[in-house]
Structures are given as structure tokens and as C-alpha cells.
Amino acid sequence: MVQKENKMKVFIAGGGLSGLICGLRLLEKGFEIAIAEKNEELGGLARCFPYKNYWLPIFYHHIFAHDKVTLNVLKELKIEEFYKKRIKMGISFNNKIYEISWIKGLSWDFLSIKDKLKFGVLAFQTKVKKDWKELEGKNAEEWLIKKVGSNVTYKIFAPLMKEKYGLPLRKISAIELAERLKEGEATGTFLYPKKGLKEMIKRLEKKITKKGGKIYKKAEIKKIIIGRKHEIFFGKEKEKAEILINSLPVPVFLKISRNLPVTYKKRLEKIRYCSNICINFVYEEELSKYYWINTFDKVFGGIIEHTNLANKYPFKFAWVWKYAPSKKLWNMEKERLINVFYKDIKRIFPKFEYKEVFVFRDLYASPLYDVNYGKYMPKIETPIHNLFFTGVATTYPEIRTMNTAFKSGIKTAYTVASKFKKSCQ
Length: 425
Hints:
Blueprint lengths: L8 E5 L3 H12 L3 E5 L11 E4 L2 E4 L5 E2 L3 H9 L5 E5 L2 E5 L2 E4 L13 H16 L11 H26 L8 H9 L6 E5 L2 H15 L3 E3 L4 E5 L4 E5 L2 E5 L1 E4 L3 H7 E2 L3 H7 L4 E11 L8 E4 L6 E4 L10 E8 L3 H4 L3 H15 L5 E14 L5 H4 L10 E3 L12 H18 L6
Parallel strand pairs: 1-2, 1-14, 2-10, 7-17, 11-15, 14-21
Antiparallel strand pairs: 3-4, 5-9, 6-9, 7-8, 11-12, 12-13, 16-19, 16-20, 17-18, 18-19
Helix pairs in contact: 1-6, 1-12, 2-12, 3-4, 3-5
């Protein structure tokens, strides 16, 4: 009689992209998997909402042409048709849009010829340089002033990063900014799956459940008791697991966890997050030729016109976002918030009118990659018995994308499988 294999139980806190791919890879290696997600929709920040027979991403998402991990996951899910476009990005000053490109940058009237050349050299360097380790521990302000001078630093990068993180350049990690520039957000080729992100997440879910994994939705975790066997309480449910993998934002994990060692807890408490307000507008006429417009003098930080990449809908759609909003803006009543954003959009696009609008807020949109983040960032394998982390909080200095989320999930699965002597793809 063949004895049945005793599978190790893994519980994954959070059903975002890193948690889902981590769960799938561990299932493939013989682990027993359970995942709990507080929202009705899986995907974390990549989750979608329904609108007129379509599913639209709540927060802005796209794929860079060099996002190999994401493209491989999609291929595995048999999603291989994409909208593909070399996007145009602009900067809005005083309601005028300046295109970001090697050629167009020469006509910017707010920089001198010398400044433009310095800016171009930096753009070239970040494209060709592979390793920025020498910047670890340095702040972005110090690095940029040496590279491009004060004018470019304070006219472009200071407001740009203030909008992205709500921090001054002197507190932002230079290596993370260099990695961001390397990604080619301003002039790169972007992709979006023709079947949409919802289909990607749906197929991931189906694969997991087909292989015997359990997924709990609308199941917010209320308490985790750390121990030899971790206990997880969510809704009216309770699970025990030999292995716990956290993909929740670090502050959320700290709030619900019990029995963490004081020294480890204090280290994780240094990690801060940036919140985000994203107002999604549905309208009829294209706003501009730009996919992405950064704004430094408006209540919002930027406009990303999704339908300038994925022109698949019988309407136009844009995300208008604000990272690190003030307390007043964060707490603003919905209708007033919409009106404030709408008025500022009209200053750039006077003819803009919307048909419908949706407001989303996320308190933990991104870890704040400050100059010291590398010293206290969570490692995948923790000093706690069979406790692991996954998600973009573990991927510094890489920028926060779907690709880094997938990479972190796969890396965590590899780490767990290797520790317990199970090879991982």
C-alpha cells in the first residue's frame, strides 16, 4: 500500500499578484496552499471593477516590453495578444504640455541649452548602465545635483518625486530613482493584454483552485498568532499552517500579528507607505496624444489615458491620480473631491467633460523608498520560525510594477521550496 504524501500547509496572507503566483508555484511543488484576500476581487492593486460589460483596472497598470517575468506568466496562462505602443509622456507646466523625448526635450523653454544636454546625458546613462550599487545609501538630491545641476533637479525631479512619494529629494533613495529612470517609463514601449488584467487574474485563480489550492475572498484577516504552527483568523474562519507567507502591506501585518519579537517588530515599524487617490473618468473624446502626463501645479499628480494604449472600449478612460495626498484631500467627501480634480483637468483640457466617474483610495499604495530603506526592508526569509515575506516591499531598489510583484512571488516560492528541499521552477 502506497503511503499518502504528507503535504506541508502554507498560508498566504493577501491575494495580490505576488501572493497568487507564489501560491501557484508552491502548489506545483507539492505544498498545500490557502490564500485569504479581504476584497471580493483578487489582484491587490491590479484588481479591476466592472463597467458596462468590461472590467477596468482600479489603479493604473501596464506592462513594459522588457517585463519578461510578466510576459512569461501571461504566456503560461495562454494570454499572448497585446495592445503594444511606444507611448508619449508629457510634463504639464502652466497648462502647457511638454513632451518628454530626446528630440522634443531640445525645445523645452524652461531649461537652458546646458541643462538640456545634462538631462540628455543622464537619460542615456540610465539606459546603458546596468548597476547602480554605488548609489546605495545616497539621497537623490545629492546625486542629481552632481549629475544635472540645480535647475534640472528642482524644476523636474523635485516636483516629480514629491508627487510620487510626498517626500523631498533629500529623503529619497538615489538608487531607486536611478532604477526608475532605467525602466524607461517616459519613452518606452508599453503593452496591455487584449483580454485585460481581469482575465489574467481569473486564470491565475482557476489554476490555483484546479490544483487544489484554497482561496478565501472577502476574508479580511483579523489576527495572526505567530508560533510553531501559525494561526490565522479571518471572518468566521480559522486556519493553522506550518508556513506563513505575508504579502500584506507591512503596517497591516504588524497591526494584526501577535508574538513578533520586539526587535524585529521595531525594525519593520520603520517602513512607511504612500497613500493614493485615483479618480477614474469615463468620457467620449480623447484628451490628447499623450498616454501619461505628469502635472506639478495641479491638485493631482498626473493623468494616464488608458485608452491611448488599450483602445478596446466604446468609450475613453483615464486614471487621474494623486500620491501622498494631504490629510484634507484624503478625507474630502467624494463629490467635492471629484469636482476639485475635474476643475484642474479643465485647466489643461478646457473641452473635457465626463460621462461617469469612480473614486478609489488606497492607504498603502507603495512603500516609501527613502534613503535608508535598504537597511530595514523586509527580507523574504525572516528570523521568525517559518515566516516569509513576498511583495514589492521586498524588491527594493526595483520600482513597483506587476513585474516586480510577480518576481517577488516566484522568488519567495523558490526560497520556501529550497528551504524544505523541494525544487522550484
